[in-house]
């Protein structure tokens, strides 16, 4: 006897889970039970990751979970090393400026600013209309070995 699963028992919407499943290029189709199981597994994974980050914050005598807690959990747990590219170490902006990986853009952004792949400097466009853009530009110099970072 198959048990019916209700969407209300999951915090994540089933429609979003289906969209994520369809992102897999090898995906053909999946049953409602499989979608529910993947949603439940995702929720358990998120809960476990959050609990570990919370424990790390408590060991640091803090009540607030921060990005650094997730960084430490991911990079110190062998089971989570697959996420190390998703949770990189943060670098202070001043350090990037000092290392010439980011430069200060003194001009005000205008409507005509576009990203030009041929130029060594490019001006990023805000992703959302009310998003604030910091006056920094990416340094894209092919002479240097290190990759430059975009700061918005």
TrEMBL record:
<dbReference type="GO" id="GO:0046982">
    <property type="term" value="F:protein heterodimerization activity"/>
</dbReference>
<feature type="compositionally biased region" description="Polar residues">
    <location>
        <begin position="120"/>
        <end position="131"/>
    </location>
</feature>
<dbReference type="Pfam" id="PF00808">
    <property type="entry name" value="CBFD_NFYB_HMF"/>
</dbReference>
<dbReference type="GO" id="GO:0006261">
    <property type="term" value="P:DNA-templated DNA replication"/>
</dbReference>
<keyword id="KW-0539">Nucleus</keyword>
<dbReference type="InterPro" id="IPR009072">
    <property type="entry name" value="Histone-fold"/>
</dbReference>
<dbReference type="InterPro" id="IPR050568">
    <property type="entry name" value="Transcr_DNA_Rep_Reg"/>
</dbReference>
<feature type="domain" description="Transcription factor CBF/NF-Y/archaeal histone">
    <location>
        <begin position="11"/>
        <end position="70"/>
    </location>
</feature>
<dbReference type="GO" id="GO:0008623">
    <property type="term" value="C:CHRAC"/>
</dbReference>
<protein>
    <recommendedName>
        <fullName>Transcription factor CBF/NF-Y/archaeal histone domain-containing protein</fullName>
    </recommendedName>
</protein>
<dbReference type="InterPro" id="IPR003958">
    <property type="entry name" value="CBFA_NFYB_domain"/>
</dbReference>
<feature type="region of interest" description="Disordered">
    <location>
        <begin position="105"/>
        <end position="152"/>
    </location>
</feature>
């Amino acid at each position: 006897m198959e048990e019916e699963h209700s969407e209300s028992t999951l915090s994540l919407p089933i429609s979003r889970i289906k969209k994520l499943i369809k992102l897999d290029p090898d995906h053909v189709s999946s049953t409602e039970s499989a979608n529910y199981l993947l949603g439940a597994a995702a929720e358990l994974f998120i809960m476990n990751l959050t609990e570990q980050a919370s424990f790390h914050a408590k060991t640091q005598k803090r009540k607030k979970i921060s990005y650094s807690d997730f960084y430490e959990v991911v990079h110190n747990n062998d089971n989570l090393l697959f996420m190390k590219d998703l949770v990189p170490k943060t670098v202070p902006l001043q350090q990037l400026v000092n290392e010439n990986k980011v430069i200060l853009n003194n001009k005000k952004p205008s409507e005509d600013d576009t990203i030009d792949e041929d130029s060594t400097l490019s001006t990023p466009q805000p992703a959302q209309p009310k998003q604030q853009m910091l006056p920094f530009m990416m340094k894209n110099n092919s002479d240097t070995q290190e990759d430059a970072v975009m700061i918005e």
